């Protein structure tokens, strides 16, 4: 599903964010991406959603080289990727319903279809009764669930989350991760970047660890932080 | 169709909705965005009114000048056709001869009519109108000659034909001087020509200013909505989708500004109506000023909308592209 081949990223100014990163995430797989802040987690996610381009190497999604994607095609790539952010990135002057409906409206769904899908996905994240609220009236955990609802409302095959539990207490964090597990079980590939090691430790999922831009471990949580016993790619 | 995943179609394609309905949806979404842009203007009435006023007043000036020019042309076109030849007769010509001459000339095929202005009558009129009334009464005898006003038939009103007729008339024994006054008409045309060019230049400069002002207003709108645009880009909105509401804003500015200009022009013409009719009375012509109607009105509204769109397009192209999620 996602394949990195010898990917390096150097920002203008010489800061090297990623060095020769290789890995592959299979369709329907769920994995964590971890490392200290500044290790390159966000950069890696940005390369997948083409917010940044690699300096060297190739990023492939479903076998398509993202280097060949032209600027005008980027929006269509992003429609295949559900993205969740620590800062939620919600429109604060629009209702929960309108926020979640945004991807569908962009894609030109009919009014009826939008209503149906948004209700269904809000039900799934447990916010049916809040659809007419403004995000500002919701708690942090609820706002994050609005963000998740928006990311999955058009049923993308791939879900990226950047510190989705960043501001949440452990119990709420776990709820959010359970939600991701639900979607994963429905066949969606999920990649979650987090520095919440306690959270990862309680789960049994493949974990990719970055340190100063290099992939230092890639394996199941139970092996973590042991040596890399599985070849990358 | 998804670029990355074969078999995964995006958006409305997947839901199996008929093409016809999707086309309908396209227009529905356009109308929705247009109305929401209008709503946005409505919610910021002070700022919107100022922009609309700038646009409207900027269009009012060239429109008013254009109308005045058009009307001047209409009037002078009428004068062009009615060119008259003035014949000043020898002072010693007898009344009988004058009458004979008048009848003779009236029979010429080139001549429509001949009017005799008696020298005594002319003197009376001159005394009344010139303001030299007192001074003129000291003169021993009437210095004015008898005058015949010859109106050529419509075939002979063009400057060259009228010139030929004038030459023929001058050969008449009783005629001392003949005048065909087309020089002042040529001068008038020259002045109108200059005025026309001036209007064009002023209009061009004002239009340019309007485009820049609208462009700047839309730029501020875009910067105000930076966060929203970022989010929309993150969830896969194309630039075309994002810029549409801003283009509609430009459209509304143009339309409303154009309507304002229309009203202002009408008010101006009404305001100036009195002084215009005074001038036309001096020329003893029945004359009504043509306002903005039909084609000219549509042209002005179209131009105004075009300016609004051009301004927003200028801004949208540059600034929406520049906002990218990082």
UniProtKB/TrEMBL annotation, chain A:
**Alphabetized SMART domains for the sequence:** AAA
Per the UniProt entry, what is one GO biological process? Answer: cell division
Q: Which UniProt keywords apply?
A: ATP-binding, Cell cycle, Cell division, Cell membrane, Membrane, Nucleotide-binding
Q: Name one Pfam family in it.
A: ABC_tran
Membrane topology is: Peripheral membrane protein
Q: How does it assemble?
A: Homodimer. Forms a membrane-associated complex with FtsX.
This chain belongs to the protein called: Cell division ATP-binding protein FtsE
Q: Which organism is it from?
A: Bowmanella yangjiangensis
Q: What phylogenetic lineage does the species belong to?
A: Bacteria, Pseudomonadati, Pseudomonadota, Gammaproteobacteria, Alteromonadales
UniProtKB/TrEMBL annotation, chain B:
Taxonomy, superkingdom: Bacteria
Annotated transmembrane regions: 198-218, 251-272, 292-316
Give the subcellular location: Cell inner membrane
Gene3D superfamilies named among the record's database cross-references = 3.30.70.3040
Q: Which UniProt keywords apply?
A: Cell cycle, Cell division, Cell inner membrane, Cell membrane, Membrane, Transmembrane, Transmembrane helix
Q: Does the keyword Hydrolase apply?
A: no
The record, for InterPro entries, names: ABC3_permease_C (IPR003838), FtsX (IPR004513), FtsX_ECD (IPR040690), FtsX_proteobact-type (IPR047590)
Q: What is its main location?
A: membrane
All copies of the FtsX extracellular domain together span: 84-160
Domain ABC3 transporter permease C-terminal positions:
201-318
Biological function: Part of the ABC transporter FtsEX involved in cellular division.
Entry similarity comment: Belongs to the ABC-4 integral membrane protein family. FtsX subfamily.
- The protein's name in its UniProt record: Cell division protein FtsX
């Amino acid at each position: 599903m996602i394949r990195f081949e010898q990917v390096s990223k150097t920002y203008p100014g010489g800061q090297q964010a990623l060095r020769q990163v290789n890995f592959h995430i299979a369709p329907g797989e769920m994995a964590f991406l971890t490392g200290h802040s500044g290790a390159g987690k966000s950069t890696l996610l940005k390369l997948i959603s083409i917010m940044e381009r690699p300096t060297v190497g190739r990023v492939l999604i479903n076998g398509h080289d993202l280097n060949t994607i032209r600027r005008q095609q980027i929006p269509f790539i992003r429609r295949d990727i559900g993205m969740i952010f620590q800062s939620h990135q919600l429109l604060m002057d629009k209702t929960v319903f309108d926020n979640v409906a945004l991807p569908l409206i962009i894609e030109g769904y009919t009014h009826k279809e939008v209503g149906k899908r948004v209700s269904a996905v809000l039900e799934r994240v447990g916010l049916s009764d809040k659809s007419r609220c403004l995000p500002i009236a919701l708690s942090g955990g609820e706002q994050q669930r609005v963000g998740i609802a928006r990311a999955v409302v058009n049923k993308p095959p791939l879900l990226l989350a950047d510190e989705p539990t960043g501001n949440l207490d452990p119990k709420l964090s776990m709820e959010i991760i359970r939600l991701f597990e639900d979607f994963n079980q429905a066949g969606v590939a999920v990649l979650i970047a987090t520095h919440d090691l306690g959270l990862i430790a309680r789960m049994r999922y493949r974990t990719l660890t970055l340190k100063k831009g290099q992939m230092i471990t890639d394996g199941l949580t139970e092996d973590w932080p042991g040596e890399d016993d599985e070849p990358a790619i | 169709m998804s670029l990355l995943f074969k078999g995964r179609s995006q958006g409305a394609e997947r839901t199996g909705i008929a093409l016809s309905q999707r086309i309908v949806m396209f227009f529905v979404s356009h109308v929705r965005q247009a109305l929401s842009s209008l709503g946005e203007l409505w919610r910021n009435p002070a700022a919107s009114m100022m922009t609309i006023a700038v646009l409207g007043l900027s269009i009012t000036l060239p429109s008013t000048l254009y109308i005045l020019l058009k009307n001047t042309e209409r009037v002078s076109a009428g004068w062009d056709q009615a060119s008259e030849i003035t014949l000043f007769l020898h002072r010693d010509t007898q009344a009988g001869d004058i009458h004979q001459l008048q009848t003779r000339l009236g029979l010429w095929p080139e001549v429509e009519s001949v009017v005799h202005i008696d020298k005594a009558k002319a003197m009376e009129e001159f005394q009344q109108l010139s303001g030299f009334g007192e001074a003129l009464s000291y003169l021993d005898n009437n210095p004015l000659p008898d005058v015949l006003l010859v109106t050529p038939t419509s075939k002979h009103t063009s400057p060259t034909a009228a010139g030929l007729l004038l030459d023929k008339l001058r050969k008449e024994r009783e005629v001392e001087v003949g005048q065909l006054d087309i020089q002042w008409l040529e001068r008038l045309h020259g002045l109108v020509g200059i005025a026309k060019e001036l209007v064009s230049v002023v209009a061009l400069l004002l239009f340019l200013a309007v485009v820049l002002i609208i462009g700047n207003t839309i730029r501020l709108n875009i910067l105000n909505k930076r966060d929203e645009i970022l989010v929309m880009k993150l969830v896969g909105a194309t630039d075309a989708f994002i810029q549409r509401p801003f283009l509609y804003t430009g459209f509304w500015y143009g339309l409303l500004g154009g309507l304002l200009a229309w009203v202002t022009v009408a008010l101006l013409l009404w305001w100036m109506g009195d002084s215009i009719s005074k001038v036309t009375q001096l020329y003893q012509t029945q004359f009504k000023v043509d306002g903005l109607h039909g084609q000219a009105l549509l042209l002005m509204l179209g131009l105004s909308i075009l300016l609004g769109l051009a301004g927003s397009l200028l801004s949208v192209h540059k600034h929406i592209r520049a906002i990218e999620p990082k």
